[in-house]
């Protein structure tokens, strides 16, 4: 029985230390302390926590080193991170600005692994001991390169245009704690307040309970794997790695935008009343082709949308015009023409600069496949039409090392892989602030 317990504890020890992210020297110390013994998992976890607490105290502002006096130095891994960051054009902190950048991808790999021939593993025990003493292991290169690529990816992700997400979401962004069903409620309005005359014993009337419209949805997961191959490192092909890094933020932004626009472009069911989002009963659908008259009709329909419950006119203003690329010329002409010539007479154009002097409120939607349809939007501060939720408020995609080989081995199948994950979903929460003309082919 004791032999079985020792084997079980050895497995627990190996797994816990592998996932602890402790430096190799500290991990080895704990391994020696618990090896060949029977212990409770809680005892090992407490020992790991004590070591991490001590490391945090020692490295709060750098490692303390020296004999007989204390001085603060930069952690070796921080130096590697700075050299890698600078290789990809990232800004670094002042205390590591003097660190030179790596000359290339292969130089970075060799420095962090000692594998000068890029074989993918090390057999020389002296080299292994040297790396261990420096606090490096098989995951160092993966994590340092991954950190650099992730920071660069997030910077680019934040700079890329949002494909019109802000037009239909506005500030209607939600933080979801888990993948369970989310519920969004559109509360109705009170009608006009009735007259009261307390002096003639007329009591204040009960305004009644407000009705509501409920929609529900769950989060989805998006993601994939990107691969850095051994061949890229041998060929010092930093351009290929950087191209992968630059393509990723755009793909993530585009995927998010398609999710946000999907209920609008697909005319999804509005769960508040189980009718299509654009429906004659909603007063937000027409079939007239693009023209001044059609735009005027859209503006009027939007203005006349009524409050749920009270039926009072919302009087919303048409703020944004969303078009396919095919209607660009017609939309720009309408917005920039001050007067029309009709039967040799000049007629003023009410939509002159209506969408901005520089057409800033006209959005060419790359996801609109019908060349004749067009969409009108109110200010989303007045009518939140689409709700967007992210898991734990994580609005940017995340990146993780997808495989982590044992020490002495640097690749799994001649490749290093990173997992990209983005968790969110969007749903139509109101039809009143959005109009669409669906024009027959």
Structural summary, described in words:
The protein is α+β, with helices and mostly antiparallel strands. The chain has twelve helices and 18 strands. A hairpin with a 5-residue loop joins β1 (63-65) and β2. α1 runs parallel beside α3, α4 packs across α7 (138-159) and α7 (138-159) packs across α10. The radius of gyration is 31 Å and the shape is elongated. It starts with a helix and ends with a strand.
Helix content: 25-40%
Main sheet: strands, sense, barrel: 5 strands, mixed
Summarize model confidence as the mean pLDDT.
86
> DSSP helix count?
12
Name the poorly predicted regions: 59-72
> What is the succession of H and E elements?
HHHEEHHHHHEEEEHHEEEHEHEEEEEEEE
Terminal Cα separation, in Å? 78 Å
Which helices and strands occur, and which strands form pairs?
Layout lengths: L1 H17 L5 H11 L6 H18 L4 E3 L5 E3 L2 H12 L17 H9 L11 H9 L4 H22 L5 H5 L3 E4 L5 E6 L24 E6 L2 E10 H5 L3 H28 L3 E2 L4 E2 L8 E2 L5 H12 L16 E4 L4 H9 L2 E4 L2 E4 L13 E3 L9 E4 L8 E6 L6 E4 L13 E14 L5 E4 L4
Parallel strand pairs: 3-15, 9-18, 10-13
Antiparallel strand pairs: 1-2, 4-5, 6-17, 7-8, 10-14, 11-12, 14-18, 15-17, 16-17
Helix pairs in contact: 1-2, 1-3, 4-7, 7-10
Care to give the gist of this entry?
This protein is of the alpha+beta class and 441 residues long.
Observed structural traits:
441 residues, alpha+beta, five-stranded mixed sheet, 12 helices, 36% helix, 19% strand, elongated
């Amino acid at each position: 029985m004791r032999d079985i317990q020792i084997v079980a504890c050895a497995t627990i020890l190996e797994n816990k230390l592998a996932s602890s992210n402790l430096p190799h020297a500290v991990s080895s110390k704990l391994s020696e302390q618990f090896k060949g013994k029977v212990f409770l998992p809680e005892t090992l976890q407490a020992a790991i926590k004590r070591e991490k607490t001590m490391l945090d105290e020692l490295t709060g502002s750098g490692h303390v080193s020296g004999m007989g006096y204390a001085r603060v130095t930069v952690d070796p891994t921080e130096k590697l991170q700075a050299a890698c960051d600078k290789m990809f054009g990232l800004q670094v902190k002042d205390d590591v600005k003097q660190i030179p950048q790596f000359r290339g991808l292969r130089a970075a790999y060799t420095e962090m692994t000692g594998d000068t021939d890029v074989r993918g593993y090390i057999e020389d025990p002296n080299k292994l001991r040297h790396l261990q003493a420096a606090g490096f292991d098989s995951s160092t290169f993966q994590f340092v390169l991954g950190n650099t690529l992730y920071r660069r990816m997030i910077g680019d992700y934040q700079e890329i245009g949002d494909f019109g997400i802000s037009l239909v979401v506005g500030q209607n962004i939600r933080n979801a704690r888990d993948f369970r069903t989310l519920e969004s409620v559109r509360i109705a309005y009170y009608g006009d307040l009735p007259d009261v005359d307390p002096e003639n014993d007329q009591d204040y009337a009960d305004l009644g309970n407000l009705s509501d419209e409920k929609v529900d949805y769950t989060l989805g997961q998006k993601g994939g794997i990107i691969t850095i191959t051994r061949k890229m490192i041998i060929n010092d092909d930093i351009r290929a790695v950087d191209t992968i890094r630059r393509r990723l933020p755009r793909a993530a932004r585009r995927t998010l935008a398609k999710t946000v626009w999907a209920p609008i472009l697909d005319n999804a069911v509005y769960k508040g009343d189980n009718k299509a989002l654009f429906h004659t009963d909603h007063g937000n659908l027409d079939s007239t082709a693009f023209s001044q008259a059609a735009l005027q009709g859209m503006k009027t329909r939007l203005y006349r949308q009524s409050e749920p419950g009270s039926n009072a006119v919302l009087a919303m203003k048409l703020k944004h015009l969303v078009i396919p690329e095919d209607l660009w010329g017609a939309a720009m002409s309408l917005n920039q023409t001050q007067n029309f010539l009709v039967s040799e007479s000049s007629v003023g154009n009410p939509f002159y600069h209506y969408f901005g002097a520089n057409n800033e409120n006209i959005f060419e939607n790359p996801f609109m496949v019908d060349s004749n349809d067009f969409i009108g939007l109110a200010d989303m501060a007045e009518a939140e039409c689409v709700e967007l939720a992210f898991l734990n408020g994580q609005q940017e995609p995340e990146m993780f090392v997808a495989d982590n080989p044992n020490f002495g081995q640097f690749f799994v199948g001649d490749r290093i892989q990173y997992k990209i994950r983005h968790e969110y979903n969007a749903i139509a929460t109101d039809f009143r602030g959005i109009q669409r003309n669906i024009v027959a082919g």
